[in-house]
Amino acid sequence: MSYDDIDAILTDAQKIPCTFDLEVPGLGFLDGNPGDEIKAGTRVDLPLWLAEMLSIGARLGTSRLVTLDLPSALSTRVMNALKADPRTVDLRSLAPHFYRLGVRILELFEEEEMVDILIETFRKRAAEIADHAHNPRGPLVEEVDFLRGLDETERQLFRVAHDSAKEVRVWAGEVKKK
Amino acid sequence: MAFPLPQGITPSEIAFLSEMELVTVVPRQRLEILELLGVSPSGGSTELLQPPVRASVPLWLALLLKRQRRINIVPPFWLHPESLSFILQIETEHRDYSDAFSPPPRLPGQQSVGDRTASDKLKPRRTVDGQPYFPTPPFLPQNIALAPAEATGPGREAPSLPYHWLEVGSMLLEAASDDLVDPNQTRRLLKDLREVRTAKMRKGIDVLDTAAMAGGGVALTGVGAMEIGEMRGLVTGIVENLRYFSGFVLGKIGVSKEQARREQLAEEGNKDYDDTQDYGDSMEL
C-alpha cells in the first residue's frame, strides 16, 4: 500500500455520500451551481479523499463540514446478501475496488460486524477463485458471471493462481506455451 | 505489484534445482572422475564410472549421459509401480491421511516411527568457512536406488515420496522410460498421485483464514517442491489480503482481534503442535 499504488489511488477516487452540516460559500459547483454557496443539509457524492478531508473536523473537535454516510456498496442490504451467499454477489458492479473501499471505510466508521463479513466473503470467494483458476471448465454461464463479478483484488488473485497453474502445465508438457 | 516478474520461482527453475538430486546409474562406458564444484554431499567430484559397477551421479549428468546412451539409470525405489500404488493407497484410503499428504522420507537423524531407540544422531555438516548446516533436498540421497538386500530385507522402510518427486519422476519418464519398470503404469500412477494431492492442497485453502489470523497453520508435511511452487502465488495472495483486512482494520477498532486470539491461544498452550512433524516443510514458501 505504497504512495504510488494505483489501486490505492483508484480506491480513494470512489465516491461516498456526504451531507453538508454548514453553509459553505463558493462550493456550489459540487452541487451543480457554480459560483454559489452550498446550503447546509445538501447531499452530494464526494470522492473518498475529499470527503475524508472535509469531515476531519469531527475528529479534531471543531465543527465539521460534512457528515459521511456508508456508500451503497457497503450498505446493510449488501452485507445481508453477502451473509446469505458470498458467491452470487457481483462485487465489481458494487465497487471495482470493493475490499479496499471496505478497509478505507472501516478506518472511518466503527462497524465491527462488517469486518467479519468481509473476511468471510473473501475467504469463501478465494476458495471458489482457486477452483476456477485450476480447472478452467470452459465458458459455462455461471462461471463467466462469477468471474465477471470479481473485484480488483480478486482479479489479481485469479491471475496469479491461473498463471502458476498454467506454468506448471506448460512445464509438464500438457499444454503448448502461448 | 507493478513489478513484472512473478513471485517465487518458476516451474523450470524448480526442475533445474531438482537436477542436483543424485540418482543411481549403471555405466556402459568408463568415465573418469570429473572435478566439479559441490556435486554431491560427499564432495566436489563425480564418482568414477566403471561398468558394471553402480554409481551415484547428479540427475543432470545422468540425463546427459543417458541421452548419449552411455549409461542406464536405475529408477529410485519409490518410482516402482508397486511403491507408487502403495503410496497412492495411503493417500486415498488411509484414515490418518485423508486430509494430509503421505509421510515424507525419513530425514537423516530423524527417528523412524516405532523405532525410538536406534536413531543415528544428526551431525551438522560444515561449509567451506566452517559454518554448520544441515543438508536439505536436493542434497539428500532420496532418489538413489536401494541395494537389493536393502530393498527386500525385513528392516526396509515403506516407500515415500521425496521432496522433488514430481520433477524427478517426470524427467526420468521423459528421458529414461526404457529403464523404468512399466513406464505407462508409472506415468498413470504419478498423474493420479498429483491429482489426489492437488485436491488436498485445495482443501487447505478453506482453513487458510485461521492460518492468517489465529496463529494457526496448514499442515504441509510431505509436500513436494513443484506443489509448493504451484500454490505459492495463490496462498500468499490470500493470506496477505486476509492479514490486510483483519490486522489493519482491527488495529484501529480497539484491541485487535488478532491479538485477542493470540492471547487466548497462549493460555491454552500449543498442545497440538508437534515440531518434529514439520521439520523441513516450511522452506521456500
UniProtKB/TrEMBL annotation, chain A:
One of its GO terms (cellular component) is chromatin. Residues 74-171 form the GINS subunit domain. It is found in: Nucleus. Residues 5-55 form the DNA replication complex GINS protein PSF3 N-terminal domain. Pfam families: PSF3_N, Sld5. It comes from the Eukaryota. Keywords: DNA replication, Nucleus. The GINS complex plays an essential role in the initiation of DNA replication. Component of the GINS complex. Belongs to the GINS3/PSF3 family. PANTHER family: DNA REPLICATION COMPLEX GINS PROTEIN PSF3. This is DNA replication complex GINS protein PSF3.
TrEMBL record, chain B:
It is found in: Nucleus. Gene3D superfamilies: 1.20.58.1020, 3.40.5.50. Residues 10-74 form the DNA replication complex GINS protein PSF2 N-terminal domain. Residues 117-127, 261-274 have a biased composition (Basic and acidic residues). Keywords: Chromosome partition, DNA replication, Nucleus. Coiled coil: none annotated. GO terms for biological process: chromosome segregation; DNA replication; double-strand break repair via break-induced replication. It holds the Pfam family PSF2_N. InterPro entries: GINS_A, GINS_bundle-like_dom_sf, GINS_Psf2, PSF2_N. Residues 160-240 form the GINS subunit domain. One of its GO terms (cellular component) is GINS complex. Residues 97-127, 261-285 are annotated as: Disordered. Residues 275-285 have a biased composition (Acidic residues). It comes from the Eukaryota. Belongs to the GINS2/PSF2 family. The GINS complex plays an essential role in the initiation of DNA replication. Has a role in chromosome segregation. This is DNA replication complex GINS protein PSF2.
